[in-house]
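Hey, quick one: can you model this chain's 3D structure?
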Amino acid sequence: MRKANGEFVKEYMKKFPALSSRKIAALLMRDMPGEFKSEDYCRGIVRYYRGARGNKDREKKGKQIIKYADLNIIHGHEYVFSISNPVNAARGLFNRAKASTLCFHHHRTSEHTETTITGKTITCWSVGCLCNLRPDYMPLNSWNHGFVEIYGDGNDGFHVDNKRIVNYRIV
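Sure thing. Here's the predicted structure for all 171 residues.
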């Protein structure tokens, strides 16, 4: 990246503070063809200048916990995960949350269940993604496509159906 590219990005971020990183990248690609390798690459630069957690509004909103019955739903960046995470994202989430929790940040489908000494079952899930699995800003990863369906029983009970998508089929 030439030094000028960073200046362009900062200028557009200042000019369009309410736009998402993706929309700013699309504008930059439209207005400056040839300056960036791809829209994903440009978006990565925008995200870099916004910081790892995005702009301040996104950071505040991202720390909210959504409650659905006894299930906690978070984005997932609230907990810092390192490269030495145990087993999978759901296990790491369980180690930190200690309550049934669902997160999306890691773009990988996983599940971890344990029973407490009192017999309560606690399960944590991480959900796959619906985005490009090999973006320019992170081409080497272990992401998978997926989504989640959550059903409630009208009380505090819930059922999580954590789906993966493999070769365009829901599994």
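One thing worth noting: Residues 149 and 161 are 5 Å apart (CA to CA).
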